[in-house]
Amino acid sequence: MALDRMEGLNLKQTVARGELREVEGIPFTEPMCKTWDQVKKFKARPDDLLIATYAKAGTTWTQEIVDMIQQNGDVEKCRRASTYRRHPFLEWFIQESPTDHYSGVELAEAMPSPRTMKTHLPVQLVPPSFWEQNCKVIYMARNAKDNLVSYYHFHRMAKACPEPGTWEEFIEKFMTGKVLWGSWYDHVKGWWKAKDKHRILYLFYEDMKENPKREIQKILKFLEKDMSQELLNKIVHSTSFEIMKENPMANYTTEFRGIMDHSVSPFMRKGAVGDWKNHFTVAQNEKFDEDYKKKMADTSLVFRMEL
């Protein structure tokens, strides 16, 4: 499909919920499995920047911060297009009709350098060219309980994801890694380990919530950029949850209407730390904690479940 067609892609038709299939042991949607070869062979360029996260761990937030830095705080430039066009979602492929589809790879290949892309891939599935080209990667991680809650509500509203089932059922799926993009535990641990051998800036959602200015300064340093305090403050303000929730270029309300039902749950729901307490029962929490201890016993990685 010609790229200009993709530019106008609105995806208003409702997409049917699909089943998950596996690629190298990781659950993907069927369209992603079919186009996996293209993703794997993707040719990164040395000045590419990759934003990596487990799904619903602050991806759009990180993208918006990075874009504001790259555009020197120019809010209008950052609203030039919606997030998924500014930063192609590498492995995502969605077919609306025989002629209309969204392909992260096609969008990225047509982009001039320097490119910024996003992925939810676990580190072992990232196209090898990113490591061969020594690309920079920003990884954002979010505590398991809040990530789980956010992912559950996302499944409820995002029709391209499989049916989440009940809250109880979804907890089980999350704990066993039987969800799109696989195990949260393996994901955060795999990227944590990889930061010792690649150019990866590993950030925490909770730190960003607590002190956005400090964390944005880490990103600036990583991207080798300088910025005045005034501009930095502007970025902190423009990328706050309240502002982004109202930004049609970041909140997914203008496109993907057939895929995301915001009446079920908004794409940007709460953006809070500790919201899991409103969802877990005492019994669910105890079971989760026990399982969490076992799965995280082999890593130095520590998360804060509340602020």
Question: What is the radius of gyration computed over CA atoms, rounded to a whole number of angstroms?
Answer: 18 Å
Number of helices: 16
Give, in spatial order, the strands making up the sheet with the most strands.
Answer: 6-3-7-8
Mean pLDDT: 89
Subcellular location: Cytoplasm
GO molecular function, one term: sulfotransferase activity
Main location: cytoplasm
Family: Belongs to the sulfotransferase 1 family.
Describe the overall structure.
With 307 residues, the protein is α/β, with parallel strands linked by helices. The chain has one domain: Rossmann fold. It has helices at 3-7, 30-34, 36-40, 59-70, 75-78, 83-86, 104-109, 129-132, 144-157, 167-176, 184-194, 205-210, 212-222, 229-238, 241-245, 282-295; strands at residues 20-23, 26-29, 49-53, 93-95, 101-103, 116-119, 136-141, 200-204. Residues 1-12 have low confidence and may be disordered.
